[in-house]
Automatic annotation (TrEMBL):
<comment type="similarity">
    <text>Belongs to the V-ATPase E subunit family.</text>
</comment>
<dbReference type="GO" id="GO:0033178">
    <property type="term" value="C:proton-transporting two-sector ATPase complex, catalytic domain"/>
</dbReference>
<dbReference type="Pfam" id="PF01991">
    <property type="entry name" value="vATP-synt_E"/>
</dbReference>
<feature type="coiled-coil region">
    <location>
        <begin position="65"/>
        <end position="92"/>
    </location>
</feature>
<keyword id="KW-0175">Coiled coil</keyword>
<keyword id="KW-0406">Ion transport</keyword>
<dbReference type="InterPro" id="IPR038495">
    <property type="entry name" value="ATPase_E_C"/>
</dbReference>
<protein>
    <submittedName>
        <fullName>V-type proton ATPase subunit E</fullName>
    </submittedName>
</protein>
<dbReference type="InterPro" id="IPR002842">
    <property type="entry name" value="ATPase_V1_Esu"/>
</dbReference>
<dbReference type="GO" id="GO:0046961">
    <property type="term" value="F:proton-transporting ATPase activity, rotational mechanism"/>
</dbReference>
<keyword id="KW-0813">Transport</keyword>
Amino acid sequence: MAINKIILKIQEEASQEVAELLAAAKNKAAASSNKINDAAMAKVEEIKELSEVDAVEVARRQLLIAELEARKNTLDRKRKVIEEVFTQAENELANLPQDKWEKLIISTVLNASETGTEKLCVPLADIEKYKSGLLAKINAALVKAGKKGELTLAEETAKFAGGVLLIGQNSDFDGSFETILREVRRKSEREVASLLFGAEVN
């Protein structure tokens, strides 16, 4: 009987110990599970926050790209309109009425001539106009302005379509319409843009 009691006692103690071990393991598992859950939830929140930050950043970048694209389109539109304006001016220069064309040529030569003895290099299509009286008008205007009126036509013809090239002893002056318009454009493009677009010009 004593032996049986001892065995029962051992079994009871073993069962108690096992129960305690199981309880401890259960508590440990629960704590570990809670820790894992807490860590997981923290990670979820972190990811969520990062996602929100990323979403804001993505939205910001998309907005910036949209603004840049809109600005680019606006600039492209302005450049296109300005280009059309100067193209129209170029066409008008090429098709000036005779009286306005002569006035422009005379004004260009008077302003550019230093000695009044330069040679004029002109397009082939305009040579007859000079020979038919324009050259004489220019020389007369030079004399009236206090300069020598001894301009002559160069033997070679100009490669440009409109305007005049003054060939001097020390320097030349490119008075082609293309060059004149390019210089006007360089100096006044912003002013032209302001006239066309007003407050939109930055």
